[in-house]
Amino acid sequence: MHGRVKTRSTAEQQEVKRKEREKKVKLYKAGVEKLFQKRDGNCFDNEVLEISAQLLCANPDIYTVWNIRRQVILYFKTEKSSEDFQLLLENELPLTEQCLRANPKSYCAWHHRSWVLDTMPVPNWKRELALCNKYLELDERNFHTWDYRRYIVTRAQVPAEDEFIFSTQKISTNFSNYSSWHYRSRLLPSLFPDPLNKRPIREDKHKEELSLVQNATFTDPNDQSAWFYQRWLLGRAHQSLLLVQAFVSEQLTFAVLNKSVRLDKSNLSLQLFISNNPIKGSWKPCGCNVDSHVWIFVPENQISSGSLTSGSLEVTLHHQNKQIDQLNLHIKGPGVEAWGSKKPQFDAQFSQGLTSVLETELDSYHQLLDLEPDSKWTLLTIVLLMQAIDRHLYKDDTMQKIGQLKKIDSLRSGYYEDLRSRYEIEYFLDNQEKDGLSHPACVEVKLSGYNLSALYHLHYLSLMQQVNLSCNQLTDRSLPQLHALQCCQVLILDENLLESLNGMPSLTSLLSLSLKNNRISTKDNLKHLVMCQNLNSVHLSGNTVANDADLEVYLKGLLPKLKTEEVI
Amino acid sequence: MEDDLPTEYDVIVVGTGMTESIVAAAASRIGKKVLHLDSNEYYGGLWASFNFDGLQKWMEECRQPNKPSETVDASKAKEGEKLVKAGNQFSTVSNLEEKWYILEEVADSPEGQLSSKITQTEGEEHPASKAAVGPGEGAASSLGGESEKLEKEGNCEKPDSDEAKDNSVLNQRENWSQNKLKKEYRKFNLDLAPKLLFARGSLVELLISSNIARYAEFRSVTRVLTWINGRLEPVPCSRADVFSTQNVSVPEKRMLMKLLSSCLENEDANKEFEGFEDKTFVEYLKSKKLTSNLMHYVLYAIAMATENTLCMDGVNRTQRFLNSLGRYGNTPFLWPMYGSGEIPQCFCRLCAVFGGLYHLKRAADAIIIDANGEKCIGIMSGQQHLETANLVMGVGYAPPDFVKTAPSGGLSRGIFVTDRSILPSDKESLTLLQFPPLDGAREPVTVIEVGHTTNACPKGLYVVHMTCKQQTTAHEDLKAVVEHLLHVEFSDGTVARIDTDIKSTQTAHQEGSSAENPEGADASGERPAALKPQVLWSLFFNCPETSQCDFSADVPSNVFLCSGPDLDLDFEFSVKQAKEIFTKMYPESEFLPRAPDPEEIVLEGEEGSGEGAEQKEGEEQGDAQEGPKEAQSEE
Amino acid sequence: MANRGGAQRPNGGPGKICQFKLVLLGESAVGKSSLVLRFVKGQFHEYQESTIGAAFLTQTVCLEDTTVKFEIWDTAGQERYHSLAPMYYRGAQAAIVVYDITNQDTFGRAKTWVKELQRQASPNIVIALAGNKADLANKRVVEYDEAQAYAEENGLLFMETSAKTAMNVNEIFLAIAKKLPKNEQVSGAGSSGQTRRLVESEQQKAPGNCCK
User: Fold this and answer.
1) Closest by alpha carbon to B118, among B132, B133, B103?
2) Pair A459, A515 in one domain
3) Distance from CA of residue A97 to its chain's centroid?
4) Which of A164, A292, B366, B392 could bridge across to B83 with cysteines, CB 3.0–4.6 Å?
5) Are B601 and A11 in contact (CB < 8 Å)?
6) Could you give the number of structural domains in chain B?
7) How many CB atoms lie within 10 A of CB B279?
8) Is C133 exposed, middle or buried (0-12, 13-18, 19+ CB in 10 A)?
9) CATH number, domain with residue B594
10) For residue B368, what are the β-bridge partners?
């Protein structure tokens, strides 16, 4: 019966495998030990390469072993002829390939491969590009491969056109691929820049891309990757940095920008001129972050009220010593203060051509919505399109669609609430503008009863003296946003969901704060009132804490200027 | 000069068709002693694929009148045995019609063409004379990638070298003669029964689970076409196709995807299809307010149904299509390299690997039945009396008495060798086209087009297979579709035939003004004849269709008959039938358990075969009788 | 053992891996399976039974810069009644045609197989002729020179082998490995172009992913 064939049973196979594994572990440990010995002895030879290769084939993710390998290779660089060195590095490539076969997402192996190519006397980029293509065929979503591809493309100076064609191919085989859409958004602006700088890419290409995305979103409205790309396409044109408000008084001077920036890191600077004389001092971000919309001026010498009586006042904004914007200030009554303000800009400001494209898009997505009434991405896109086309025309529709989104995508209802809050505030600010918001002495800004869940654009209210945010859904997390209210003297936060004042910024102008009917329960939750040292009245009725007998004593301890009769 | 075979078996299988081969493999796999015979010198019977030469031989055999049946020597029967002569009722094809459309020989010089003899094998009168054009009058067009050039052959102008290179790559404008084609006979693999495999169909699953898959290679069908509004159009069948297609609007894309999704959702099926139980699939589609384009795609190309298909049947067919998407390639279908005839051979190999005995050119001349006529004892093969516990037989070999309920159905088949694809594209395509029943025609026609990358034919040529239910003769049944898709006039190679899209108006104009538009087909609004593939050679035949008949009625209980090729796209019927036969023979045994991989094979005495090798010897004796199987673990 | 097993390169890297289908042909009982078993398992059995279940084995051969993996197909006895299925040598890149040096008929039959391969198999197939049972030199009837001359004429590799003593067994496979064209194969496993073997792992993809 010799030579008859049988097959291993599962148990036998497992046993064989277990033994093999045991042997491997033993070998592996011995290998690691030997390798480290050799390294510690500065012994760089072929054996190190052999051992480390075996170790890496077993586990490609040990950075140290790759490092030792590179040390040896660099050592050989001085030892070997250029041809031999090339050969040595050539042989590194199959090793990384084997490692990547075992783990296609091994950072170490990918990194080693690019190191090898950079070190190699004559790298073969074409081959590498072919490898990328092959790997992306196997797994079109492996972002390591995409990253590596971008590296190869840069080194090999592959024309962006070719890469654009490649990304088109990848998308046509499977459009559920963030990487290829993202790659596209990187390639397009360099290939087809918009001469008018109004949209991300040239108008004709922009239309093409919107139509491509539409094909994807209609084919599968649940696929996020295409929608994300569409967001990029619909993103509003780059807005330049502007000075939007400024205020000067003896006690307080600040400037407001339309974007939150970090001055020092962006080569930006602000300068205050009084009667054409630059005033020395430094600008500090307002709030607790390093970047801010609102920048407070700390003059070297106090600005005297006398200097506000006559002549001109202006603030200028510079980028790399070049003035990019300026704001002239009006003096309000001699010796008191000066202020300046520009109209906020929330419209997308697209060209007529693009707007009509967007209108067609909007029609299409209404069609899609008819077919898929519960598609959240479709609804959201319709909202974004309406906002981009004509915010005022579509106000009611926007709010209604957001309400719908909250229902069908309840998990993200908070996100939709915030979005609605932002739109509410934008609409509000637009209207205030008509009513003369820019006048800081206007009676009261009444952002009340909008059910706001979050605060946006408050820096446009930096000059206002009375701000009413009552009857909203504000929680503690919105408090830091209040930092922009630098001129605010009376702040009303009644009928919100505040549980504490944690996060309350320093508001030096604030005299009266009303917190009626919130959810503040303990005195300790009020400790941040200390940030507003000039407060003389705090209203707390309708909070549990109001029943605390020691409340008054506690507050007086925090706020020296507090008037007894004003704690209610 | 006959080989002596061992005389006792568990299973004798007669015929190497698909079902027979699967049963043979399954029996051998569980250790049964199997003898597998085929009277032909090739594997597969009516499921075979042939090279061009082999096909000629096959046709010759088919044309020969049925041999006078040899009388069976009754003296060979033992006492108490009856001999029943084997038959050939369903192994023969009919209405065989072969035809050439090119010259027998093409000389290098244009003049030579005139002297070439035109030959035709039997068939109808041929319309060659109309198309014959003298030298110098005709124009040969050169295909140079996208740019087309028309050149007078008389000028002997050669395209410039770059284009010439392109030409040789595309190789489409080569002048084929009969002799040249015959010389390349080995490069053909022509299927009598072309079959596609659904990527998640029962055969693919069986090939994988049994590990027989390693014997075969496949290519993915690259596109599914349909015939709509008088032209060919790719059907968007995968998600990627739907995304990329220019042929449907974006709202249609959503409607299509939505419909396909609802066909896939089994759980909701009850609600979705409520009220359509007795209605047709078309009525369901109409209720979904699909545009007529989409209706066409779904009904004819995806469900591969007809207007009479019932709703749930249509849904099931759609599911079958969709479930097979996304596994291999862009369509749900696979095509076997070297043709469908490879598949039965793969099962035969497994049978042989597990000890099955193979003998081609060896017939079962008679079946030996016990005196009561209830049980089969064995077969007479030549002078040998071979005994078996079970007899599995292709219906083609069955004695007439075994198949009293003769099937009336048949298949109409057409095979065409052409000079280009029915819808040319950048890369060679592997195409499935379900041609809808048109203009009152009753039956859809399955069209499969394969090129040289599947080893179906030499580079530059295509093979088009057509199959439909037989109504009259193959030629008649397929005529309409042939005329829509192919150019079946005689060509002596001098006629200008412009192949390109009609994009270039200039070319189109020249085309229109040229006198060589034999059919004037563009008047009818169809694509001009010159754009269709030129048929070089064609073959029509009718083949019996036996999948519908009940075989158990008139046979002894241990005899199992196997059907010949059926109309379905895939081999699913054979897989099902083979499984049923196997289960009847060995109800307790597993059907084609996984064959071991090379790494799992240990030879006795080999190191690492496990410590228990010695104790297990007794057990292994037992194995020997049952043949190889996975050794039992001792735990 | 030298050329079996591990596939480590001089500097420890794996080199490229090429996979080839190799088929064995020849008359029954010339020692086809014995050659394979000697090569793959290092074994020999005097009274080798027919090779049930083991007609498909793999073995790796290590060349300087390449690892060659042979998929070795045995006839599974189908040659016995001249009934070998053509699918057997489909796509084979290499073949060993075996005869028995003590049996003239088997040499004649080997020539027939060579012709068959030249006719039917792929045009680039590497064919080796193996005169097996070289250990039985005293019973030799096929002369070495005759076989070598024939091999040269037909462009075949030629060696006399003995599965029993292992003579030239590894060598003949190695010689074939060297002669095979080794194209750049990034991924290793050898499916050419768009053709595919069906494998289990591809099952993992969800069905009907067209709509999901």
Assistant:
1) B103
2) yes
3) 35
4) B366
5) no
6) 3
7) 15
8) buried
9) 3.50.50.60
10) B83, B378
Tell me which residue in B5, B322, B599 faces C208 most closely, judged by beta carbons. Answer: B322
Helix residue spans in A192-246 (DSSP H): 203-219, 224-234
Cα separation, B264 vs C207, whole angstroms: 10
CA gap B378, A478 in Å, rounded: 92
CB contacts under 8 A, C 68-127 vs B, are: 75-78, 80-83, 85-88, 90-91, 119-120
Task: Name the minimum distance, in Å, from the CA of C108 to any CA of chain B.
Answer: 19
Residue B468's H or E segment, with its range, is strand B462-469
- B139 by DSSP, 3-state: which? strand
Q: Do A175 and B243 touch (CB under 8 A)?
A: yes
Q: How many residues does chain C have?
A: 212
Tokens encoding A405: 């989104």
Phi-psi region of C82 (alpha: psi -120 to 50; beta: other; left: phi over 0): left
Say yes or no: B27 and B69 in one domain.
yes
A220 touches chain B (CB under 8 A): yes
A87 shares a domain with A186: yes
In 3D space, the residue among A64, A68, A71, A120 whose CA is nearest the CA of residue A92 turns out to be: A120
- Whether B494 is covered by a domain: the verdict is yes
pLDDT, one tens digit for every residue, chain C (212 residues): 333 334 444 455 556 778 899 999 999 889 998 999 899 888 887 776 666 666 788 898 888 778 899 999 998 888 888 899 999 989 899 999 999 999 999 999 999 999 989 888 888 899 999 999 999 999 999 999 999 999 999 999 999 999 999 999 999 999 999 999 876 443 333 344 577 888 765 444 444 444 43
**Structure-token pair, residue B85:** 């002569």
Q: Is B439 found in the same domain as B518?
A: yes
For every residue of A133-198, DSSP letters joined together read HHHHHH-TT-HHHHHHHHHHHHHHT--HHHHHHHHHHHHHH----HHHHHHHHHHHHHHS--TT-S
Q: Which domain holds residue B63?
A: 8-92+341-406+548-599
CB of A480 within 8 A of CB of A528?
no
- pLDDT 10s digits, A111-157: 999 898 888 888 888 888 888 888 888 888 888 888 888 888 888 88
Q: Do B605 and A367 touch (CB under 8 A)?
A: no
Report d(CA A292, CA A315) in Å as an integer.
Answer: 17
Strands A337-341 and A243-249: what pairing? antiparallel
Q: Does B124 touch chain A (CB under 8 A)?
A: no
Q: Same domain for A474 and A414?
A: no
- List CB contacts of B596: < 8 A, sequence separation 6 or more: A7, A8, B211, B630, C53
Closest CA relative to residue B97, chosen from B119, B61, B124, B118: B124
Contacts of B598 in chain C (CB under 8 A): 56-58
Touching check for B185 and chain C: CB below 8 Å? no
Say if C54 is an interface residue toward chain A (CB within 8 Å). yes
Q: Are residues A137 and A185 in the same domain?
A: yes
User: In terms of residue numbers, what domain contains A149?
Assistant: 27-198
User: For A26, phi and psi rounded to 5 degrees?
Assistant: -60, -50
Tell me which of A355-359, A414-418, B249-253, B510-514 is least confident: B510-514
Same domain for A456 and A408: no
CATH label of the domain that carries residue B247: 1.10.405.10
Inter-chain residue contact A15 with B254, CB threshold 8 Å: no
CA distance B36 to A420: 77
For residue C73, how many other CB atoms are within 10 A of its CB?
Answer: 23
pTM to 2 decimals? 0.79
Q: Quick check: is A289 in a domain?
A: yes
Residues B360 and B318 in one domain: no
Tokens 């006979």: give the residue.
Answer: B185
How many Cα atoms occupy the beta-carbon half-sphere of A404 within 13 Å? 18
> Mean pLDDT over residues B381-404, rounded?
90
